[in-house]
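To: structure subgroup
Subject: Chain for Friday's discussion

All,

I'm putting the inputs and outputs inline so they're searchable in the archive.
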Amino acid sequence: MPIAPVRNAYLHYAVDGPVRGPAVVLSNSLGTDFHLWDGIIARLATHFRVIRYDTRGHGGSTGKPEDYTIDELGRDVVELLNFLNIDRAHVCGISLGGMTAMWMAINARDRVNRIMPCNTAARLGTVEGWNSRIETVRSGGMASIADGTMERWFSPAYRTKNKAQVATIKQTFLQTYAPGYMSCCAALRDADLTAKVGSITAPTLLVAGSYDPVTPPSDLMWLQENIPDAQYLELKAAHLSNMEQPDAFLAAMVSFLGEKSV
């Protein structure tokens, strides 16, 4: 199991694709691990050198059970690139991973080529909402919010037709280290990029889900209006658009990142 040391943690990661291919970092959403990308990884790795990692406190990555910050999660990516001797990479992320991608473009622009923030927002949720979720998980564990989370992550049609895939993601969610999950909830509670996204200069493709109740299309449209020259794509999906619409997601990704993969 490849592990990279970062500040106060170890990141579990995987690398696929040609060594000399353009590097792409994939950042997972809250409550998942890097297997979130399994549906597209084989095809994506024919074009790119793909680096997947578990966000600290998730999957095989460690992390102290304390409140994390979006700065800390973004620096983890920088340190992972340093560990792998990669100067620059494209960065694509879902939800929390999308915020991490934007943080990279704002704070580590010399390490970023293009970014693809998906199903995310400059400010995700409310302080009250995140505090309530933290307390629910603290008292009832991951199982206390699992069913509601699946309902937000996948559209009713997808849940009906793809029960096995939803069950797999639910199992990953249930196995997520609760203190690590709560620590990342704190990072989202405190993260606010609204005043900073205008400084992003990296070419940007924003992906929204038409049926996403967590980060509705309006959140991504706001980002398009405020990130210079950002492109916008809306897929018929809920929150995990890469799983619900893997073919359309992958086609858009390869087209966008392949425009100038250097």
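Points worth raising on Friday:
Residues 3-260 form a domain with the Rossmann fold fold (CATH 3.40.50.1820).
The two ends are 29 Å apart (CA to CA).

D.
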